[in-house]
Amino acid sequence: MKIETAPFFSTGGVPSLGMLGDYARDSWQRIVLYADVMRRRGNQYQEHLAEEVPNVLDFPAEVVMSGLELARPVNYGLARILTPDAPDPDPSKRPFVVVDPRAGHGPGIGGFKAESEIGVALRAGHPCYFIGFLPDPVPGQTVEDVMHAEAAFLEKVIALHPLSEGKPVVIGNCQAGWQILMTAAMRPELFGPIIVAGAPVSYWAGWHGRNPMRYAGGLMGGSWATALAGDLGNGRFDGASLVQNFEKLNPANTLWSKQYNLYANIDTEAPRYLEFEKYWGGHVFLNDVEMQYIVDNLFIGNRLATAELITSDGVRLDLRNIRSPIVVFCSNGDNITPPPQALGWITDLYRDDNDVLLHDQTIVYAVHDSIGHLGIFVSAKVGHKEHQKFASNIDLINLLPAGIYEARIVDKTPDTPNADLASGDYVLQVEHRGIEDVRAIVQPSVENDRKFAAAARVSEVNLALYRTFAQPWVRAMVTPQSARFLQLTHPLRVSYERWTDHNPLAKLVAKEAEKVRAHRQPVAPDNPLLAMQEAFSDAITAGLNSWRDWRDTVQETTFDLVYGSPLVQALTGQAIGDTSPPRPHPGISPEHCEYVRCETRKMDEDMQHGGLVEAAVRALFYIYRFRMIADERRVNLALKLVKPQYTQGFSMEEFRGIVRQQARLMLHDFDAAIAALPTLLSRAEPDAIGALGEWLQQVLQVPEAPTPDEEASLQQMLEVFERAIKAHAKALPPAAHASQTASQPAVQAKPAKNTTSA
To answer: pLDDT tens across 342-388, in order?
Structure first.
């Protein structure tokens, strides 16, 4: 936080002796208080690691199911979030399941504070669950074992909520994002809407000059270093090394800004600093086989994004098999998972919009302008805005037809029409996009892929060399004691362990800090020495940032020179001048082509199937075909009106299936879908057809007056309904015909109003 200061020379050219004394006293007091906070940090670190199930959840919870008891045990567990001070969640609402990343830190970041993913879901009335993990993995557990455990947890949640309107909403943060997507590709029937926040899925993707982390594997020569680290750890990979890699991305923050901010704002910053450090210092472990799988198949191999992974049971992990809506939340300010890595799998899997339609997949993306990686999960502003809108509009997201959409969240203002139909301080609008829009963000490049493909092949060779010639010797020399020594002497652990109450000097600092707090005398904000302090800090930050930029440029240039060289590419099977992709696109496989033919034939057959509900959905899509924006106010009104009238006899999930199917048919063959409306209406009662016309007119009034095109389309639909009513009357016997004519008024369009009468 910048401190507003007076001009430096306002005191007559140099600071007075009084100002020097005030600043010196304040500086000494801040040093003492800073040292005491670091002491408390060390104590907190030791207490946290001593807990049986360490986590940073801000909510009470109870274990519902332990992964240790599964047939293939894992160190994961399912916990129910308790609400002792709030009403019980609505049993009809779908539960939320938050999965935290196992990326070096302990669990709980998704419920780190009240304004979090868990917090907003609870306030929206949803039952909430949390999938966390213990610091130590079960010996021999694999990534696939974790996937099966997650599937078992979701089965348990589904069984506990038989009255829910749908399957659970699953949120995966960071590394947990690709984990739940893999599970969903294996068991798609267990998932409701899926939200992946800051989750890297397409690891080769990135913007030139901006995303250096993706080069790390290639610059290390591949995953042999991962195997070495696992061997030195005696079969365990230390998560502190992953955290260290994250810290290296921003040396200015790691080496200076984070600590300086605590020092400069020592009177107010300590609680927030300690809260965050409890999470950041909660290092956990992975099995060497887990980490090796992740690095080989995801980080370097990038096989998830192109459906190349196959489980031991023979199931191909193809993300196109997921039928639940997928919400991808990422940020331009995220240097760990930039938008190309969060969205690149879409262009990796799909050639065009028709591919998305044929696979009946709904993808919604939202790109934040500036928030950092951790801010996606822990920022109170993000929780209050993005996560709150996703949670309160999960039914809207769930009803979206197949396609690609962008979520936009706009502020409510006094002039916002029908503001009461939108929860909170914002309005969610979901606008239709296409593959080309995603491609513009990702900026895929065949040349880039060729370099990473070469790096992946070099990694395979180096790993084989290590396993053949070095690994037996390394494993023979490693003992549990040597592995423990490396763990204890890791620089990140030492930074926490060296300054605790076990250090005699720390106790002296604690006593002095008590005296300082009792007689605290902060320096005046206009003291010119504070300006000098800030300028000095800014200079250090700028210098470290310059060094980071130079380092990143050197790394990127080195990667390009090595893996873009004709020699390396030729040695890895890529001929010079070959412009073809280094790996075939999944969309051109024979299996996919046969799938497309079958789906096309099935949609042609389904055009004439359905009744009133199907006709209502087609009519609504026909009217709104010009707008291509789903506004939460209009959708909320439509759901409010449709539930009592048109969902009798089937569940909300069945209604979702109808909406998606009809939208799919209209996108497949618009003219044929509309031409079939009389056939669908012929299976409905005249009264119901008339009520449908009234419903359409009500929905069209929100949130603003309909456009002339929408008015004309509405009139066309009402004419179709009127003809259907007349055709139905002609088919009746004479006596019934007279009665029907007397009781059934014609369907006429009402003047559009910018008000609602629900």
So the answer is: 999 999 999 999 889 888 899 999 999 988 888 887 777 887 788 88
599-610: burial string, b at 16+ Cβ within 10 Å, e else: beeebeebbeeb
Bridge-based pairing of strands 426-433 and 629-631 is: antiparallel
Q: Based on the fold, state whether residues 162 and 104 are members of the same structural domain.
A: yes
Could you tell me if 223 and 217 are in contact, meaning their C-beta atoms sit under 8 angstroms apart? yes
Provide the Cα torsion 22, 27, 32, 37; round to 10°: 120
Place of tokens 């993995």: 137
Q: Are residues 225 and 354 in the same domain?
A: no
Phi-psi region of 573 (alpha: psi -120 to 50; beta: other; left: phi over 0): left
Q: Is residue 404 part of a domain?
A: yes
What is 481-545 written as a DSSP string?
Answer: HHHHHHHHT-HHHHHHHTSSTTSHHHHHHHHHHHHHHHT--PPPTT-HHHHHHHHHHHHHHHHHH
CB 41 within 8 A of CB 277: yes
Nearest to 274 by CA among 507, 604, 63, 37: 37
Pick left, alpha or beta for residue 382 (phi over 0 → left; psi -120 to 50 → alpha; otherwise beta): alpha
Question: What domain range includes position 611?
Answer: 607-743
- Gap between the Cα atoms of 23 and 11, Å rounded: 15
Q: Which amino acid is at 245?
A: N
Task: Find the Cα–Cα–Cα–Cα dihedral 399, 153, 318, 667, rounded to 10°.
Answer: -10
Q: Give domain status of residue 209, yes or no.
A: no
Evaluated on CA atoms 600, 605, 607, 610, the torsion sign reads negative
Pairing assessment for the beta strands 61-66 and 629-631 based on DSSP bridges: unpaired
Does residue 173 sit in helix, strand or coil?
Answer: strand
Does the N-terminal peptide bond of residue 703 adopt cis geometry, omega within 30 degrees of 0?
A: yes
Q: Do residue 112 and residue 141 come from a single domain?
A: yes
Among 393, 414, 435, residue at a domain's last position? 414
Helices (H), 582-651: 590-606, 612-623, 632-646
Instruction: Indicate the number of domains in the chain.
Output: 3
Mean model confidence pLDDT for the chain: 88
190 with 321, same domain: the answer is yes
Same domain membership, residue 193 and residue 75: yes
**Which residue is it, tokens 């502003």?**
381
Closest to 666 measured CA to CA, from 707, 623, 637: 623
pTM for the whole structure: 0.89
Structure tokens at 500: 């605790």
Q: How many residues does the chain have?
A: 758
Distance between CA atoms of residues 99 and 91, nearest Å: 21
CATH number at residue 143: 3.40.50.1820
Phi, psi of 736 (to 5 degrees): -65, -30
Mean pLDDT, residues 139-143 taken together = 95
- 318, 284: one domain: no
- Give 286-329 pLDDT, tens digit per residue: 999 999 999 999 999 999 999 999 999 999 999 999 999 999 99
What whole-number percentage of the chain has pLDDT above 70?
92
Separation CA 745–CA 727 (nearest Å)? 14
**Residue 442 resides in a domain:** no
* Per-residue pLDDT tens digits for 444-460: 999 999 999 999 999 99
Distances (CA, A) of 466 to 94, 228, 709: 49, 8, 67
Count CB neighbours of 485 within 10 A.
10
Cα-to-chain-centroid distance, residue 390: 11
Q: Give SS3 for 84.
A: coil
Sole residue written with tokens 């009238």: 645
pLDDT in tens, 93-137: 999 999 989 988 888 888 887 778 888 888 888 999 999 999 999
What type of residue sits at position 652? Answer: M
Can you tell me the distance from the alpha carbon of 343 to that of 329, in angstroms, rounded to the nearest whole number? 9
Closest alpha carbon to 586 in 301, 336, 355, 330: 355
Pair 322, 184 in one domain: yes
Report if residue 430 sits inside a domain.
no
